[in-house]
Amino acid sequence: MPNKEPISSSGTILSGMRPTGQLHLGNYFGALQNWVDLQDSYKCIYTIVDIHALTTIETPEDIANIRPNIYEMALDWLAAGIDPNLSTIFIQSHIPEVMTLNTLLSMVTPLGWLMRVPTFKEKVRQMEHTEESVNYGLVGYPILQTADIILYKADTVPVGQDQLPHLELAREIVRRFNSRFGETFPEPQAKLTKVPLIVGLDGQQKMSKSLDNHIDLASTEEVTTKRILTAFTDPQRTTRDTPGRPNVCNVYSLHNIFTNESDLTTINQECTSANRGCVDCKRQLAQNLNSYLGPMRERRNDLSKRPDDIKDILSEGAKTARQLAQATIEEVYDKMGLS
Ligand code: AMP
After folding, report:
1. What is the CATH number of domain 12-198+307-336?
2. pLDDT tens for each residue of 300-315
3. N or C: which end of the chain has fewer CB within 10 A?
4. 163 CA: nearest ligand 1 atom
């Protein structure tokens, strides 16, 4: 690990991810890359939210996957450049105080607020449940999210436009708590990040593991190339002689990220004049993507040989986080008249 000095910061950032195992390109460009950059100017706290994962877990297989998924995710974070000398990284459930705060915040959160959250209705539908049959933890998801943020008195949360309603709810909970029990928590501010949408290999939907249209950061070069060769391109380009339309082709939009300007111009010209086939285009993309991910994969490989170091990093992170958490809970108990 590079031994960098922590940077004097402009605020405290909190962000988390559910342990879904190995991360894909969408996770990297939509979140992780930004987390790495934020380390230069903020005090950053990043947490693997395993309790949140339990809100939608139903099968024994899902449960058996939580631990390995946490490990795989931590490896990806570190390989991508999350630096434990700059950021605090830990597993949510290692800080039991978050569950205490979750319960206490639930005393100031009307059920109506929770049920209005757009993602709640969406999750109920996805899980093929009704609002009555879904578990109580799922309804309370935003309270736990708020507890995650304010337990460490974080004041800044990086979010995409679509997540603004969640943060607004966190701010409402904080306002209500502060007005009832006295000024305790900063109102967390959204740090709007332009989350680029990475489209999956199907060329249509958001890249996602559950749709099996993803490319894992940690895949081998061979698997990456094989998967890219299955990618959908311009649906109107049915033969090699038909000119392609780069502006509707997801392979081209991926080239935009991984390929240099002059090659991009060539690809565009050769595609629109039918002088290049999609297979060549995909092979070139695979090559560029593999070069881009190469250093990350090497770091990951190296780290994976030292599983005890990963455990140590997460446990050191939990120690730091727990100190902050205990101080907050002490203050909250006092303000709420508990002893
Ligand atoms: P998830 O595990 O799907 O909740 O994703 C974790 C993070 O990655 C969130 O911040 C998402 O917004 C981001 N993310 C996931 N998939 C994509 C995608 N296809 N394009 C952009 N960002 C994504």
Report:
1. 3.40.50.620
2. 999 999 999 999 999 9
3. C
4. 12
